Amino acid sequence: MLRKVYSKYLTICAILFVSLTITAQKKVLDHSVYDSWKSLSAMGITNDGRYAATVIKEQEGDDYLLIRDLQSKRELSIPRGYAYTITPDQKYIVAQIKALYEVTRQAKIKKTADEKLPKDSLVIISLDKLSAIKIANVKAFKVGKDFSDYLAYTIDDTLKAKGKAKTDEKTRTLVVRNIYTAKEDSVKNVSDFVFSRNGKGLAIVTKPEAKDSINKPSVVYIDLKGYNKKIVSIGKTLYKSPSLSDSGERLAFLATSDSAKAEIKNYDLFYFSSNTDSAKLIVDKTKSGMPKDWNVSENYDPQFSKNGKRLLLGIAPIVLPKDTTIPDFEKAQLDLWHWEEPLIQPQQLVELEKKIKQTYLSYVDLDNGFTFYQLATEEMPNVSISDENNGRYAVGTSNLNYLFDTQWDISARLTNDIWLLDLDRHTQKQIKKGLQAELNLSPDGKYLAWYDVNDRQYYAYSLETGKEVCLTDKLNINFWDEKHDTPSIPDSYGFGAWLENDGAFLVYDAYDIWKLDPSGIKAPENLTKNLGRDKKLTFRYIKTDKESRFIKNNEKLLLSVFDNTSKKHGFYEVEKSNLKPLILDQYIFSSPEKAKDKNVYLFAKSSFNTSPDLFVTSNNWKTETKLSDINPQMRDYNWGTAELVEWTTFDKKQSQGIVYKPENFDPNKKYPLMIYFYEKHSDNLYQYSPPAPSRSIINIPFYCSRGYIVFTPDIQYTTGHPGESAYNSVVSGVEELAKSEWIDRDNMAIQGQSWGGYQVAYLVTRTNMFKAAGSGAPVSNMFSAYGGIRWETGRSRQYQYEQTQSRIGATMWEAPDLYKENSPIFFADKVNTPLLIMHNDKDGAVPWYQGIEYFMALRRLHKPVWLLQYNNEAHNLKERRNCKDLSIRLQQFFDHYLKGEAAPVWMKTGVPATEKGKTYGLEIE
User: Full-prediction pTM beyond 0.85?
Assistant: First the structure.
């Protein structure tokens, strides 16, 4: 029996009558509403909690920046404002302003050259006055992190030089502006610039054109405390990657004297101190400690340790130029696959640029004679230095010995050999071999902690003493995913955060938060007092100070909470071990932005039928103030309600789902039913979905608005039988729902994408209860798919079938019967449901030929089937124009079969290749 668990719609007859009267006047959603539907992004609040800001985005059109004085309630809206920064003194907001969308669109229609397209502007907003100063033609801007007398911006004043390659680095005029006095200085031909963290130093790289006989490439340093400007290096062919210490007193950069046209350039590392006159070379290929035939790599930007005493750089083997003695047109073109290579060729090709640009971490000790130390090696390619690169210890890892197994074993991706490096003694030792774990280095560098995926316990290793302790083996608690339903090792619930002085760290179980002492002396502490497991509440730590690397002692903790029963969301607070509820409500909340110096939180909240808007609270959610109303037009449209339901599946498992009904639902009417599924959806009871063009799936509010009931059942899986699992869960749920008088069981359809698309393709071989079906990017033949490639990553697909989502749990040769059982193509003759397939020719997840195989089988059988193949498109559509097209076709397809609407031309006769691009067959004849 289908059981109603929670309903968001009112059932009192009088209220329902009023609701129906009101909603009868409302409009239904159509495809014209998408572009102006808005969303919130980039929420920010000043340290004192006085001012809030957010960018309100249109799907297609002009966004705007909204700034609100939370005390006076004054507002300032900056049309097309985006990419804003609150200056460190909290007195200004600096942002860019996009050119008008329609002006830019018209310019593109006229095929205007990129360099002549409308330009961005800069706006400087005084928060006290809520007044703005605008500066035209600005490409980009930066400010210091902790100091704000100055900002720097580049003017978009360059045109493409004749004959200049598109890949050539563009240079622009840089303007350095005092925010308070408006005094400006400019530097021409700037290719890069960077502030120090404290904002008191500015480094600039210039790159005049080669034909410029007066100006030379250079590096300019400006001491902003007294605005003293000096050229610290000049005359090299190219400069790049400037970096300043936090104090702004130390500068590093890369430079080469090689020809700008040289295919391979040798870069050197230069260093400048503010108490010297010029920069000096400190590392080149002849540096003591540099491996033979290695050099400084241009593919790693130098960076200073937090205290400025170390200068980190990347080194790499010197690459030889390619052989030019044989012309390219006489060279063979092939990829050679070798059975013993660690990675297969497609994955190598996807990762080729990363491999070519791979660097190995090294550093220079700036206070001890500029001594050079190599840390990472080809055998140990990954090294992390503790304590913001100040620490005594570093941890090195390598998964090179385990890459081969990643073809089929996902746990091999977590397998590493691990080394401990002592940077005081300049020694290293291997501490682990073949550890399968999620690693976490403590902020101060005292411990390396990890979750071992095999014994499913947490460990800590003291970097000083070498002592290793298992921290959770005495607890009868699962720190691994209790709902894990694939034939692989389950993931942990994850780390939360470290505490001050590396004194403890937080980890999660399914519900609660645990505090673990890495020394193993103190017993584990359940911070949430087992309330989570007792009440089925999931608690998680929220980092409210973005700059903090750890939780301070006696700091109040803000926790998110999710009620697994009611699906409500909210927040709790922990203070001195006291757990206090703040709010638990029928909404989804964004992660709050906290004012650094005040107990003020800025957040967004929404529900299925409530558009996300911006809110603020200064009393821990006892009250809240709404700051925006981004989609007032939503009130004009017939929307919907969401209701949680439960039932027992055919294989006697308990399952949940969500039933969405039109806002003007009438229980005396019959409604066509749309069923969408993937894996689990019920936790999203309060999730808002804006009307938007579909990338691959149905838009639930759109279909509710237009008179459909939508059902999203959860699927309970059994290893080896994913198709049957989908049948047991989906069909059982639909059968129960169809017992309702208001379901038109003669007009039901299913739709899904990717894994959902596979399950649709399977279900239509098992039942004729659906009048139509939509299957996006489906696997139809598990035999051929098992041997396929995920072209976006280049990985083999074998691991998916043996261990993850496809859930077979065995190889193709170990269980051919299971591969056949779960392959829709072998049962294509059983299909009687009209099927719309979308499978795109640049799908990087599911091989395109899977959709083609199914289409060809059904076509051969004279079954009604269509294949939408969007050109140069991905697994889920990326181009908005294609999303709009798909949305129209989905509606036409399902309206035809479930509502009896006339079929469009594309469904009747298709669109011949000769008409491609001329007509789209969307018209009704």
Answer: yes
